[in-house]
From TrEMBL:
SUPFAM superfamilies: FAD/NAD(P)-binding domain (SSF51905)
Amine oxidase domain ranges (all copies): 146-238
Subunit composition and interactions: Interacts with COX5B; this interaction may contribute to localize PYROXD2 to the inner face of the inner mitochondrial membrane.
InterPro entries, A to Z: Amino_oxidase (IPR002937), FAD/NAD-bd_sf (IPR036188)
An example molecular function term from Gene Ontology annotations: oxidoreductase activity
GO cellular component, one term: mitochondrial matrix
Primary location recorded for the protein, binned into one broad class: mitochondrion
Job description of the protein: Probable oxidoreductase that may play a role as regulator of mitochondrial function.
Protein name: Pyridine nucleotide-disulfide oxidoreductase domain-containing protein 2
Subcellular location: Mitochondrion matrix
Species for this entry: marine metagenome
Length: 251
């Protein structure tokens, strides 16, 4: 959705579809994961027929979680401690979403329990519920820890699997790919899109302070002392630096 909204393809970004991957064993055998279902099934079956049979159930369960979480990624979480009408309505909408009877078959007590459990468990524990072959579990676990500081035993790592199943390339859901030219091509395309909408990029100018008045941010101060004012401030710093370095303690 972001890709389309920013028209990144128009600004030069090309995504090469990911065709598959493989994990090698010392004895010369390997497990290969393909886009083709039958090839993947046969690849798993050479290690465990039981695991091959479980693979469809695994994929179905993960995709179910994708359908649950995907709409929530675009929702602003309500403040459960607030009595503001907006937050109260947000909690109501949040609860109504989980109680809805839709294509998911509805989320009853058991489904909500399973969902919360999935979001908080380790990928190791999750894969243990489906597979017995170590090479299959190790290979699939890679998708849950790549790009993170987590390990397969880390709580919450099972959830990261969803981001690989929620991916989309050229309208194909469940697919993902590589940016032609490397990761830098993504930021180049984003910069081009931003500039085409009259945006200005100021490089080499660290932000030292976010200006706040009456509990609302209204601008920022650069290292050279310049001040920039805006209706909305978005920080791409980590949480620690955002709130402990560039936001004053009194705020």
């Amino acid at each position: 959705e972001i890709f389309r909204d920013l028209e990144l393809s128009k600004h030069g970004l090309q995504i090469i579809p990911y065709e598959g991957s493989a994990s090698m064993l010392d004895d010369g055998r390997f497990y290969a994961h393909y886009q083709d279902h039958d090839l993947t099934y046969r690849s798993i079956a050479q290690f465990s027929k039981k695991d091959a049979e479980a693979y469809d159930r695994f994929g179905k369960d993960v995709m179910r979680q994708c359908k649950i979480i995907k709409p929530l990624l675009k929702m602003t979480p309500p403040d459960p401690t607030s009595f503001k009408p907006k937050d109260i309505m947000g909690l109501f909408e949040f609860a109504k979403y989980f109680a809805a009877k839709d294509e998911l078959g509805g989320l009853g007590e058991k489904e909500i329990y399973d969902t919360i459990r999935f979001w908080t468990m380790s990928v190791r524990d999750y894969l243990e519920e489906y597979f017995e072959s170590d090479i299959v579990k190790v290979h699939l676990a890679g998708s849950a820890i790549i790009g993170t500081a987590l390990g397969p035993y880390s709580p919450g790592s099972a959830y990261v699997l969803l981001h690989h199943y929620m991916g989309e390339v050229d309208g194909t859901v469940g697919a993902w790919g590589y940016s032609r030219g490397g990761m830098g091509s993504i930021t180049k395309a984003m910069a081009s899109s931003f500039k085409s909408n009259n945006g200005e990029i100021i490089a080499g100018s660290p932000v030292t302070k976010i200006l706040i008045k009456n509990n609302k941010s209204y601008g920022l101060v650069l290292e050279n002392g310049d001040e920039i004012y805006a209706d909305k401030i978005v920080s791409n710093l980590d949480v620690k630096r955002t709130f402990l370095k560039v936001v004053e303690e009194k705020e």
